[in-house]
Amino acid sequence: TQLLEQSPQFLSIQEGENLTVYCNSSSVFSSLQWYRQEPGEGPVLLVTVVTGGEVKKLKRLTFQFGDARKDSSLHITAAQPGDTGLYLCAGARTSYDKVIFGPGTSLSVIP
Amino acid sequence: DTGVSQNPRHKITKRGQNVTFRCDPISEHNRLYWYRQTLGQGPEFLTYFQNEAQLEKSRLLSDRFSAERPKGSFSTLEIQRTEQGDSAMYLCASSLAQGPRNEKLFFGSGTQLSVL
């Protein structure tokens, strides 16, 4: 049983479209993180959210942490082929707990 | 410092053989994690260390898997009597856990294990 669920599992869109991917849990998380992974490489951290309701922006990417700290979303505006990759959410349930990962959303942006 | 280094990048072995992987973390990082990842899936937690202390090992992990981090620097992950189901990417990550909720993991490029 996955503590962190992600949806959709796969997403294929045209360049210029907007998209949102989701990360959900039945448990409260102290913090949630989003990583992006390219084939053959390790994940790279994009952002960490720690406060319920928090919104963070990173260029065309907008991240939100749910009020109850059980879910998060990643919205990409005007997707580009360089956004292609596996998007992973990860989190720690308590402040000093280990970091665990969700199953990921595989995004493909077609030129 | 060039980041987290993992060796080897690829390992092909026959079923039943033992294999050992090495991870060199970012030098000032006190935490070190091992994860396993299969194609199209997220990293699965295996174990982690704070300095030289192993804090937790996944309950799903067979006794054939063991990890060490002597002196709180590099770490090794050993798999004994490998099975075909062990084939996966083994990822190492390190972090500087300074305070609550601000842990940032930095990953190596992984070791791809193929068991024939």
Overview of the structural elements:
Chain A has no helices and eleven strands. The N and C termini of chain A lie far apart (36 Å). The relative contact order of chain A is 0.33. Chain A has strands at residues 5-7, 10-14, 19-24, 31-37, 44-49, 55-58, 61-65, 71-76, 85-92, 100-101, 105-110. In chain A, the strands form two sheets. In chain A, strands 2, 4, 5, 9, 10 and 11 form a six-stranded mixed β-sheet that branches. Chain A has a five-stranded antiparallel β-sheet with strand order 1-3-8-7-6, with no helix packed on it. In chain A, 0% of the residues lie in helices and 52% in strands. By secondary structure, chain B is an all-beta fold. In chain B, strands 2, 4, 5, 6, 9, 10 and 11 form a seven-stranded mixed β-sheet that branches. A four-stranded antiparallel β-sheet of chain B has the order 1-3-8-7, with no helix packed on it.
What features would you highlight for this structure?
heterodimer; A: 111 residues; mainly beta; six-stranded mixed β-sheet; 0% helix; globular; B: 116 residues; four-stranded antiparallel β-sheet; 48% strand
